[in-house]
């Protein structure tokens, strides 16, 4: 139960501050992509006072019986509660005990470790140490260990371990001692929870005196220095309405964990984390704050995915909180998939398969809106139907309409983008043939039907919202249109590829989609004619038609504000201005840099970065990537630091509803795609590093078509070192020069300069 000694692997919180508990519950959440357990304290006085404790189970959506029915992640029973009474008085956390309390997120081991001294009003006390995990090696398993050391003797001690399922909103199907099965009212999805609890006093197993359906209780008289160990294992399994009874799976998982014993379960979990870290760690020398931020990001990213489940994806707050109800946005494909594709392709594949399995929902949505092909939901849950609410409470507590569900359609191109990147990076042809191609073709078909050829000879996409959600019902959003064009072109390329390399797959798929040459040709014409808003005389993309005529507000003049800029300016004025909520043209520049010829990249960055209010946690990461690629490492570092602060700094209260997983993905992207300048071509990986002055070196691992590469960029010597741990020789482009890398010989390239190098 001792935490990792190296401080860059831990997040430490000392003392107890009830006002910060909700944020800390998110920050200290543990997750394995199936179970997410918020880091609320287990010790409680009774009742349901710990409002921020939550266990969330991926895919367990329910609609809470409201109209319109919006699926939300249901809350699973809280399996970690413990109540300790000394002489009948419950122990609680006291603010004044601050010095005796610490909680550590041990990111290396994927565990939360606590230490506290708890006492009651008569000053009888215990020393407490706690440890809990959501097993990364057996995703059904959660485990909690509590060690108590009694300070005084002759005290009557009561210890209760319970599972709290009051008001969780699930229907009970079965309840036995240590086993319960629950059902969501709307979808009939079931959740089985099997639990085993044991208590040892001075290493002697003691049977519980009370054994309720979900309660275990012990009573004894203390002796000074007595050591008590409570070990609880929970196994949770989810099953669809028509699947077999999940109870059996939960019981089997529990039995297997019990057979192993908790030290072996913990050891297997730690080995699984070691493996994830070996594949994904990023090391920065010279900047401990950045190092910790990277580890924190990687910890949550590695805990958010489950390669074994193709029917769930990662929500905007992963499994760490209730904000956005567990809904999946473009965050996953644009901000998370780069990390998974390059470090954990199995997880990336499962996430893309979720989009494949929800294609029918996307087709239904396009059809319902009068278009063809597949229009993915802006907010997606279990079926792929649109789950974006049509109204929310605004910052001024008034109801505001939300049009994203109808108009933020770039999501379809974003998913196609992630599919293509995954295939190009992994070379997973089976995925392309069996799932990816269908996504690419159906999203392209949507765009082709969504555009209208008008009298000016251009195809227009009217009435959308781009990533900058301050401006609604706009025409020809550059991000949407250029991504749509790219989507159509990749679909045409995919069709040609299938036809040539896998004619049988092409026959099957084109037959199934009723896709013929004439339609493909039409798509080509649409792609050629799409309006993009690019003006070759200025090198600027106009964010949408008419954007340049809007009021130009000096965003820098509002830099001291404590609320988003649209709150300061008011919604109407913001909409009439060039103030941008988040990276929009800049996001396009980060995703498709080849669309920005000559000095257009620098010009667009300069124009749009100064007009951005960063009203979304997603915004700065895209700016950071682009700034680094443009050679401005210090500006990029500023974006990196501000993004890191979103979830690690207590001044950002919005973390209560869960960590911002997209911005955590963005932290990895800034390091690898920005500072290291990683990109790829048809048959090579490319690096064009630009490190901030404070970073003495940057090291990371990526996978490229079944090869494992370890890359280190060191500033004092300006050397890029690449070692290949497995796989056939491959080409690597470093600062524009091509090299061949093999397993036998690592590559060592001396480059001219790092800081300030323009890629
Ligand atoms: O997907 C984002 C969107 O871009 C901005 N608002 C929050 C969403 C979820 O993170």
**Number of separate strands:** 34
The mean pLDDT is 94
CATH class of the domain at 8-278: Mainly Beta
What is the general shape?
A: globular
- Low-confidence runs of at least 5 consecutive residues: none
Output the number of helix runs.
20
The portion of residues assigned to helices is 25-40%
Largest sheet: 10 strands, antiparallel
Distance between the termini: 46 Å
Bound molecules: 5-hydroxymethyl-3,4-dihydroxypiperidine
**CATH homologous superfamily label of the domain at 8-278:** Glycoside hydrolase, family 65, N-terminal domain
Kindly report the CATH topology of the domain at 8-278: Beta-galactosidase, Chain A, domain 5
Label the CATH architecture of the domain at 8-278: Distorted Sandwich
Describe the 3D structure:
Keywords: Glycosyltransferase, Hydrolase, Transferase. InterPro entries: 6-hairpin_glycosidase_sf, 6hp_glycosidase-like_sf, Gal_mutarotase_sf_dom, GH65_N, Glyco_hydro_65_C, Glyco_hydro_65_M, Glyco_hydro_65_N, Malt_Pase/Glycosyl_Hdrlase. Residues 681-741 form the Glycoside hydrolase family 65 C-terminal domain. The active site is at residue 469. The chain is of the alpha+beta class and 759 residues long. The chain has a domain at 8-278: Glycoside hydrolase, family 65, N-terminal domain (Beta-galactosidase, Chain A, domain 5). 33% of the residues lie in helices and 25% in strands. Strands 1, 8, 9, 10, 11, 13, 14, 15, 16 and 19 form a ten-stranded antiparallel β-sheet that branches. A five-stranded antiparallel β-sheet has the order 7-6-12-18-17, with no helix packed on it. Strands 20-29-30-31-34 form a five-stranded antiparallel β-sheet. Strand 10 and strand 11 (141-150) form a beta hairpin. Helix 9 runs antiparallel to helix 10 (429-450), helix 16 (585-591) packs across helix 18 (619-629) and helix 18 (619-629) runs parallel beside helix 20. The longest helix is centred in the middle third of the chain and has 24 residues, at 478-501. The structure holds 5-hydroxymethyl-3,4-dihydroxypiperidine (IFM). The site of 5-hydroxymethyl-3,4-dihydroxypiperidine has 9 residues, from helix 5.
């Amino acid at each position: 139960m001792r935490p990792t000694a190296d401080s860059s692997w831990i997040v430490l919180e000392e003392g107890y501050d009830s006002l910060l508990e909700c944020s800390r519950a998110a920050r200290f959440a543990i997750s394995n992509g199936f179970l997410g357990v918020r880091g609320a304290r287990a010790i409680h006085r009774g009742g349901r006072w710990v409002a921020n404790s939550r266990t969330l189970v991926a895919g367990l959506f329910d609609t809470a019986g409201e109209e319109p029915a919006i699926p939300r992640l249901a809350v699973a029973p809280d399996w970690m509660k413990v109540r300790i009474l000394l002489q009948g008085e419950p122990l609680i956390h006291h603010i004044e005990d601050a010095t005796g309390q610490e909680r550590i997120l041990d990111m290396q081991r994927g565990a939360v470790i606590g230490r506290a001294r708890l006492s009651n009003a008569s000053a009888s006390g215990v020393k407490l140490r706690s440890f809990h995990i959501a097993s990364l090696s057996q995703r059904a398993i959660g485990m909690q260990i509590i060690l108590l050391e009694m300070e005084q003797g002759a005290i009557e001690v009561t210890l209760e371990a319970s599972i709290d399922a009051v008001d969780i909103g699930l229907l009970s199907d079965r309840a036995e001692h240590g086993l319960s099965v629950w059902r969501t009212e709307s979808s009939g999805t079931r959740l089985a929870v099997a639990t085993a609890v044991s208590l040892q006093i001075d290493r002697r197993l003691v049977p519980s005196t009370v054994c309720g359906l979900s309660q275990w209780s012990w009573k004894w008289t203390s002796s000074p220095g007595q050591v008590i160990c409570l070990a609880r294992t929970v196994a949770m399994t989810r099953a669809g309405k028509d699947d077999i009874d999940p109870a059996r799976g939960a019981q089997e998982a529990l039995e297997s964990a019990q057979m192993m014993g908790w030290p072996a379960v913990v050891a297997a979990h730690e080995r699984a984390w070691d493996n994830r870290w070996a594949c994904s760690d990023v090391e920065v020398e010279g900047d401990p704050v950045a190092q910790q931020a990277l580890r924190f990001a990687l910890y949550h990213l590695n805990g958010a995915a489950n390669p074994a489940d193709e029917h769930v994806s990662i929500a905007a707050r992963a499994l760490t909180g209730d904000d956005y109800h567990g809904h999946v946005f473009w965050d996953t494909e644009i901000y998370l998939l780069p990390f998974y594709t390059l470090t954990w392709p199995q997880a990336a594949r499962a996430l893309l398969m979720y989009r494949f399995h929800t294609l029918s929902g996307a087709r239904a949505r396009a059809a319902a809106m009068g278009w063809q092909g597949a229009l993915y939901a802006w907010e997606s849950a279990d079926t792929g139907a649109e789950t974006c609410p049509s109204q929310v409470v605004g910052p001024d507590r008034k109801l505001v309409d939300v049009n994203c569900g109808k108009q933020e359609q770039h999501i379809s191109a974003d998913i196609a983008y992630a599919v293509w990147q995954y295939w190009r990076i992994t070379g997973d042809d089976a995925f392309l043939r069996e799932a990816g191609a269908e996504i690419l073709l159906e999203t392209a078909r949507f765009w082709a039907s969504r555009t209208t050829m008008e009298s000016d000879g251009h195809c227009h996409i009217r009435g959308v919202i781009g990533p900058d959600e301050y401006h609604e019902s706009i025409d020809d959003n550059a991000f949407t249109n250029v991504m749509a064009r790219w989507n159509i072109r990749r679909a045409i390329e995919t069709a040609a590829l299938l036809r040539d390399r896998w004619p049988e797959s092409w026959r099957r798929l084109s037959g199934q989609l009723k896709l013929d040459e004439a339609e493909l040709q039409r798509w080509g014409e649409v792609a050629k004619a799409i309006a993009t808003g690019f003006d070759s005389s200025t090198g600027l993309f106009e964010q949408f038609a008419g954007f340049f005529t809007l009021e130009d507000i000096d965003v820098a003049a509002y830099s001291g504000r404590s609320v988003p800029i649209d709150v300061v300016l008011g919604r109407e004025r913001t909409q009439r201005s060039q103030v941008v909520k988040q990276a929009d043209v800049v996001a396009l520049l980060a995703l498709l840099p080849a669309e920005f010829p000559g000095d257009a990249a620098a010009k667009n960055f300069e124009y749009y970065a100064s007009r951005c209010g960063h009203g979304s946690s997603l915004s700065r990461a895209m700016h950071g990537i682009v700034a680094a690629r443009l050679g401005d490492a210090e500006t990029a570092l500023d974006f990196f630091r501000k993004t890191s602060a979103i979830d690690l700094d207590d001044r950002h209260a919005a973390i209560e509803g869960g960590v911002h997983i997209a911005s955590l993905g963005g932290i990895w992207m800034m390091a690898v795609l920005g500072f290291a300048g990683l990109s790829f071509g048809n048959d090579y990986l490319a690096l064009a590093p630009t490190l901030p002055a404070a970073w003495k070196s940057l090291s990371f691992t990526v996978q490229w078509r079944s090869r494992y590469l370890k890359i280190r960029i060191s500033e004092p010597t300006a050397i890029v070192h690449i070692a290949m741990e497995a796989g056939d020789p491959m080409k690597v482009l470093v600062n524009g020069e091509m090299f061949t890398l093999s397993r036998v010989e690592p590559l060592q390239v001396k480059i001219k300069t790092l800081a300030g190098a323009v890629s």
